[in-house]
Each structure stands twice: as C-alpha cells, then as structure tokens.
C-alpha cells in the first residue's frame, strides 16, 4: 500500500524519474557500454544516453575511450525516449557537420582566440577553420585589455553559420550570461537578512558605496558606514577595497540589498554610558547647526544635542548659527 512505503523506497522512486535535458546542456557522465556504432553513458535514474562512436576514434581509427571513463558531453536531441549526446571533439564526421550541428543545437565548442581584427577577434576552431567574434560577444563586461584574450582557449556558441561555413560568427556571451544567471540564483538562495558577508567595493558615490557580493551588488549607505558622521564616503572607501558588512535588508522584487558596516562595529554608546552619568562635564566639538539646536560630537560615534533654548543664555534666537559656529 502507498501509505506503507518507507522513506527510502519513496526516495528511490523519486531518483528513478528520468531527467529532462535542454539542448546544449553539459553533463559529466561515465561510459557504461561501447558497441560497434555507439558509446553509451550513464544518466542516472536507470537511464542511458548515447554518442556516435566515431567521436572517440583517432586518426588511425583506434578507440580513445573505454568503459568506466568519465567524459563531458552535450545533449543534442531526444527521439523515442533515447537521448543523443555529443562531445566537443572535432573528429565528428567533419568540421562542417560539427559546426552546423553546433549552430543548430547551440552546443558550446572550444576554440582559441587567434588575433584582434576589425570589430572583434579572429577565433581558430581548428587548423583550417576560423570564425569571427565581435567585441560585444567576447565578454559580458567591457573589454579594456584586448591582449588578455588573444591566445586563450574559451567555449563559444556558433551564433551564425552561413555560406556553407564561409561565414561563422561565434559568441561567448550566452555562455557567460547563463553562468552569471546561475551564480545569481545561487546567491539569492544563500543570502539572508542579518548575515555578515565579505564583498569588494565597486563604486563610491556621495550617498554611499556599491559593494559586489560575488555577482550581486548591494548598497552601503553613508549612514551605515560607521557610528560617526561621514561627510565624504570617498575618504573611507575606494573601488577594490575589501569590506565586511551585514545585510540589513533584502528586496528581491526590486533587486535591492542594503548593507551596513556600522553593524559589524561595537556600539560606542555602550561604552559612553558606562563612563558618564547625568551631570558629567564634557568637552565636545560642534558638528551641525539647525533651527532647533546644535549637534556636538562628544566621543567617536557619540553626538549630543545642545537645544537652542540652552544656547543664547536667555536671548531668543531663530537658528543655532546665531549663537555658535560649526567646529
């Protein structure tokens, strides 16, 4: 009876449900069987995928893989419940067939950035074939140093394949955007209000600093930079600075995260009230003047209000600046 099934039995049933794969999805899998034409891989849930055996033959027709090997493969299509995969190896039938299949299924291929040309980069797919990658498709961030890409091997999507392979446009952008989206999703699942996190200052403005938390930016408002009044955030922070902050608010609906450095520091008020009592005589520095009084810094992070009625020794004034100056 269904109600009498153990937890382990229910778990096993759940694990036995075949996975759904999207075109171009990459997996790491173990080769479980090799036949005359096909190489079979274990997909879990008692299901298998298959690849063309020709992808694993070297120039002399020798098999380069064996049962038990772990390989990286990309999902191509599913027919009658059978799932076809491919590797990035360019020994698949011919380079043209491979590139056309890569274009049709958006499977990533590995290629080397050869040189900079007008509008972007020449990318070598193999000894005889090169494609073009525009600047805007090489990265999701602005490219400042072209030399940092030349000679490097990356994964690309074939975004355009025409004129029987004479026009090949490549792009890294969809791959990077997918990775970025996955990273942000993982961050959204892990970040919580009240957590202390590490970040890197990305930008500093008059109202605060933007802090990169590993793919998502949060705002450190000027009011949360410390217990003392901060007049200029750029005195405290610069882009590239590493900071420890507390997440004090998260609003995923509007993609807003509010941070606090102040929350990582001891509250100076606690020490102040242990040192002083009502009637204590102190010296302080006037920091701000208003129409209701003057704010006086007594210790680092602690300010007191000197009411306007206590400023002019009985005389009626409209603003604290009529009796005292800042500083």
What's the topology here?
Layout: H1 7-15, E1 26-34, E2 38-44, E3 47-52, E4 70-79, E5 82-86, H2 95-105, E6 109-117, E7 120-124, E8 130-134, H3 135-138, E9 153-162, E10 167-171, H4 173-190, E11 196-205, E12 208-212, E13 217-221, H5 233-236, E14 242-251, E15 256-260, H6 268-275, E16 285-289, E17 293-299, E18 302-307
Parallel strand pairs: 3-5
Antiparallel strand pairs: 1-2, 1-4, 2-3, 4-5, 6-7, 6-9, 7-8, 9-10, 11-12, 11-14, 12-13, 14-15, 16-17, 17-18
What can you tell me about this protein's structure?
This protein has helices at residues 7-15, 95-105, 135-138, 173-190, 233-236, 268-275; strands spanning 26-34, 38-44, 47-52, 70-79, 82-86, 109-117, 120-124, 130-134, 153-162, 167-171, 196-205, 208-212, 217-221, 242-251, 256-260, 285-289, 293-299, 302-307. With 327 residues, the chain is an alpha+beta fold. It contains 6 helices and 18 strands.
**Biggest β-sheet, characterized?**
5 strands, mixed, barrel
Number of H- or I-type helical stretches: 6
Average pLDDT across residues?
Answer: 84
Helix content: 10-25%
Q: What is the number of strand segments?
A: 18
Report the order of strands and helices. HEEEEEHEEEHEEHEEEHEEHEEE
Q: What overall form do the CA principal axes indicate?
A: elongated
Distance between the termini: 82 Å
Q: Biggest sheet: strands side by side, in what order?
A: 1-2-3-5-4
Q: Which runs of at least 5 residues are low in confidence (pLDDT < 50)?
A: 89-93
Strand content: 35-45%
